Amino acid sequence: MASSSVVMDQETALELVKKGSTLLLLDVPQFTLLGIDTQVFSVGPIFKGIKMIPPGPHFVYYNPSNKEGNEFSPTTGFFIVTHPSEVIVRKWHQQEERLVRISEEEETRYSEAVQRFEFDRQLGPYALEQFAEWRQLSGYITKETIERIEPIGGEITIVYESGMIEKNPRTAIDKQLVEQLRDSKFSKCAAEKVEKKGCYYKDIPHVIKQKDITGGELTSLNLDKTSLLETILMEDYEGAEGLLLGELQFAFVAFMLGQSLEGFLQWKALVSLLFSCTEAPLRTRSQLFTKFIRVVYFQLKHGFDKQNKGNSVGKGISLFLDDTMFSKDIFLFRLCKEFFPLVLESHGVDGDLLLWTRKLKSLLETAFGWEFKDNADIICEDEDDEFSPVIVPPNEAIPSEDRAS
User: Fold this and answer.
1) Does residue 216 share a domain with residue 351?
2) Which of 94, 115, 138 is the last residue of a domain?
3) pLDDT of the residue at 164
4) Which of 140, 168, 310, 346 is deepest in the core (most CB within 10 A)?
5) Within a domain: 143
6) What is the mean pLDDT of residues 261-278?
7) pLDDT for 189 beyond 80
8) Do the domain assignments include residue 264?
9) Total domains, the chain
10) Which pLDDT value is given to residue 348?
11) Among the ranges given (233-242, 246-255, 393-402), the one the predictor scored with the smallest mean pLDDT
C-alpha cells in the first residue's frame, strides 16, 4: 500500500511538471531573494527557477544581495501570465543586477531543454498548497489588466518612484514612506537611476469639483461619491466592474509584494472611493460592493497573517504590511467606521454584502484591535488626509473642471 502511494505521488508530480509552466532563471546570484506570488526562495548554488506553476497570472519579484547575503537591494517585480506546459526564460544581467529577456532563438533552445527535463533537479516546485491564497489576492487580475497597467518594460520598483512621491507627498503616511526611502542605504542608488514612467493606473479624483452648483450640492456629492464611481466605471473601465477590481488587486500586489509606493497610493485611492459611497452599496451596486469587500478582506487577512511570517526569507522582501501603516490615525479606520454602520444598520441589505461586511469588521477588530463604537465618537484623523470629507460652505462654488484630481 505504501509503495502504491509513493508511485501515485510520483505520477501525480510528473503530470504536474508536464502540465504546469516553468520559470527558468539563468545565472541568478546566490543569496538573491526571489519570490513568486506569496512564496519566497533564497537562491542557492544550483537554483535555476521554478516548475509546476499553475496557469494564469503571477507576480515575480526579487532582491539582489551582496556577496555575504546580509544586505539586499530594493525589490523589483513584474507580472507574467503562464499557460500549460509553457517555459518562460529570464537571464540575470550582471551589470544591471536584474532579470532580462533573452533572444527568441535562445528561449526556444532552453525551453526544449526544460521539456527534456535537463533542468529538473535545479528547479524548485511551486507550492501548490499556497495557490488558493494567491488566487484570493489576484482573482480579478487578467492578461488585459496587466497589459493595460504595467509600466513600459514591465518592471515595478521603488527606485523609479522616489521622484513621483517626493513631488507631492500628500499625507503623513506618504511623507513617512518617502522618509523611509530617503533614509535607506539604497537611496543614493535610487536617485542615480533614470526616472521612468510608472504604472498606467487610472486617475481617481479624491475631490469632486463642479461648476454652477451650490456649496450644499457640492458637499453632498463629496460625501456620497456614488456619482463619481459611476462616472469612473463607465468612462475608465467601460462599465466593467471586474476591470476596476483587477486594478485594485494589481495595485495591492505591487504594493505588498513589490514594495511599490505608487501601488499603495492607487490602492488607497480606489479603497477610499468605494468606501465613500453610500447609495451604490445599498441600491445600485450591491454586487460590486460584495466583491469589493471580499477582495479587501483577503488583502488585509493575508497582509497581516502574522502566523505565516516565516514565509518571508531574510529581510529583503517583506510579504506583510507594517502594523504602523494601519493605526487608527490612518484613512482606512475612518472610512470603515463610517461605512460599517451604513451597511449593518440598514434594512433590506443584500445578504452577501451583509455577510462580508461583518467578516471584514471582525477581521479589523481582531487583527488590528480596532473598536468601531458609536459613529458620533471623535475620530482621530490626519489633518492633511486628502480623503477626509469635503465640506463646502453654502453658495461657495468651485470654479474648476467637472473632474479633477
Assistant:
1) yes
2) 138
3) 62
4) 140
5) no
6) 93
7) no
8) yes
9) 2
10) 87
11) 393-402
Average of per-residue pLDDT across 95-115: 95
Q: What is the CATH number of the domain that holds 344?
A: 1.25.40.550
Q: All 3 cell numbers of residue 182?
A: 530617503
Q: What's the distance, CA 7 to chain centroid?
A: 40
Measured between its terminal Cα atoms, the distance across the chain in Å is 66
φ, ψ of residue 268 in degrees (nearest 5): -60, -45
Confidence of residue 195 (pLDDT cuts 50, 70, 90): low
CA 87 to each of CA 106, 108, 200: distance values in angstroms, whole numbers, following the listed order? 12, 9, 27
**Residue-wise DSSP of 234-284:** HHHSTT-HHHHHHHHHHHHHHHHTT--HHHHHHHHHHHHHHHT-SHIIIII
Last residue of a domain, one of 138, 162, 178: 138
**111 and 245 co-located in one domain:** no
- Give tens-digit pLDDT for 287-323: 999 999 999 999 999 887 655 544 444 445 555 566 6
Confidence of residue 222 (pLDDT cuts 50, 70, 90): low
Amino acid at 166: E
Q: Which amino acid is at 170?
A: R
Instruction: Kindly provide the b/e burial profile for residues 101-134, where b requires at least 16 CB atoms within 10 angstroms of the residue's own CB.
Output: eeeeeebeebbeebeeeebeeebbebbeeebebb
* Contact present, 363 and 300 (Cβ < 8 Å): yes
Q: In percent, how much of the chain has pLDDT > 70?
A: 69
In this prediction, residue 177 has a pLDDT band, given cuts at 50, 70 and 90, of low
- How far is Cα 202 from Cα 79, in angstroms, rounded to an integer? 18
Any domain includes 31: yes
Look at residue 317 in the predicted model and tell me its pLDDT. Answer: 53
Identify residue 119 by its one-letter amino acid code.
F
> Does 151 fall in a domain?
no
Q: Are residues 117 and 7 in the same domain?
A: yes
Residues 327 and 209 both lie in one domain: yes
CB 266 within 8 A of CB 203: no
Q: Residue 42: which H helix or E strand, with range?
A: strand 39-42
Domain membership of residue 106 as a residue range: 2-138
For residue 67, pLDDT beyond 70: yes
SS3 content of the chain, % helix, strand, coil (to 5): 50, 15, 40
Cell numbers linked to 167:
513631488
Q: How confident is the model at residue 370 (pLDDT cuts 50, 70, 90)?
A: confident
Asked if residue 136 lies in contact with residue 298, where contact means CB atoms within 8 angstroms, the answer is yes
User: 246 and 383 share a domain?
Assistant: yes
Pair (226, 296) in one structural domain: yes
Which CATH number covers residue 55?
2.60.34.20
Hey, what's the cell of 124?
A: 524548485
Check whether residue 38 and residue 133 sit in a common domain. yes
* 393 and 303 co-located in one domain: yes
